[in-house]
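Tokens help. Consider this.
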Amino acid sequence: MADAQASGACGSNIVWVQVPSPALHGANLNLEVQICAIYILFPSFTFSSRRRWVRLTGSYRIKGQNHMEQKKKSGADKQQALYRLLTEKRQTNVSYRIFHEEHLWSFLEAWIDENQALQSKAALEFAKNSHQGQVRSKATPYVIHPLTVACHAIMCGIEDDNTIATMLLHDVCEDCFVRVEELPVNSVVKEAVRAMTFTVSGEETKEQAKQRYYKELLDNKIAAITKIFDRCNNVSEMAQAFDWPRMERYIAETRKLVLPLLEKIAGRYEEYSKILFLLKYQILSVIDSVEILIF
């Protein structure tokens, strides 16, 4: 709990916080507000209430903290301060992970044995070795990402061996300097991983390469659905791995390229339509919330 004091309107930043009293009146009241995880200090704010929620418009300060009275922070400084606070514990404490690699590994091994999924079995071991030592954030091994993508797909009802193997290997060539020909899987999985691997060739600009990449993804059914699961996981966990500028770019790319791809996949591969509805819901829920709260 923190003691916040209104001191006038300023700026256009918006934060929602919960307060103990459902009744709020006036513009110059001392309020005990639960700032949640937000620790950005602003000099002032105006507010409006709706039940137990307060909309802080402009800025606010925590009583006893005079940093902002001396020097007003820039928008980038505010964003970085919030980012550090929200990710600090997740980066330093393994208990904050959404999933742990040992649990994911055990789940996949059991699924592989039950379904005699030989491609996924080879892919699982290869992905583990290839991503060894890589981290997604300070305390999160990178391999958790492909493991989570594969587990998510299985729980959504996808049980095709080639598809799960592709999900396990989808970042190996791009991030681990492994050639597609070196993958210990069949040609179907190799081609799907090749389609998932982003490259810039010839005289292409990076933007031109992206346009080509997303267009070609649609032609490979396995790569297409892998891309959507991949983006869903990345969006869901980007606060743990991305800084603010990268997060903003990532959301923009998701709206411009990934969501249109999702709609095209749903139109071409009808068997994925229900799964894609769920993925779209999750992706939009995350990025809409981030944009409302932060940008």
About this structure: The first strand starts at residue 2 and ends at 5. The chain has twelve helices and seven strands. Residues 135 and 155 are 25 Å apart (CA to CA).
